[in-house]
Task: structure prediction
Amino acid sequence: MSVSRISTAVARSSPRSLRAAAPLAVSTQQQRSMADASTSHAGFTSPFHRGTGNARDTTVMPNWGKYKTGKETSNKVFQYFMVGTMGGLSALGAKNTVQDFLVNMSASADVLAQAKVEVDLATIPEGKNVIIKWRGKPVFIRHRTADEIKEAEDTKWESLRDPQPDTERVQKPEWLIMVGVCTHLGCVPIGEAGDFGGWFCPCHGSHYDISGRIRKGPAPLNLEIPAYDFPEEGALVIG
Ligand code: FES
Result:
């Protein structure tokens, strides 16, 4: 026998008075539940239940007054102080981080020592060449004579392959300082040689003049001028 048939049989077998009283008991129970719900917050003055009956009054906001200090300016001063302090600490941390990084990445003292070479110019007589090694490359130092200076300055440089006046290539006319690497394929030219009284590269026949400018041969550019300075009379620092 199915469940529905059993329930129908039980209903038929129960007395008629019981069947009439059942809905009444249910409705009484529902009324009690609603009454309990409506008075469940009777002892609690919630700011969100101030509307009529049990309806919410959404325009009422809680009062946070007791959490305020009473002075708006003191709050702002405190906020500014905290923001300023945190900003200062962050900047200090960032500065230290960057500084540590730069100190770690910078060249050590021995590398810096190799980066610069000091030369005593008093040891180089006029009309002579000296070759020194700087950062693994040869550097030519030429103590030019007055005739060589005149020749270098009088050359019509505008029509040269790599046009450059002599005054742009020297700081002091008597001292010509150049990287001794041919601009063609990197050979080391020979001094006091070639058709122009300067340097000659035997690898493929490039001729440089007494200012180190390319005058003949396959090299495309003048000999390079390195960074240098005369910190005092008779001293030269390359690098
Ligand atoms: S490397 Fe000097 S001419 Fe070729």
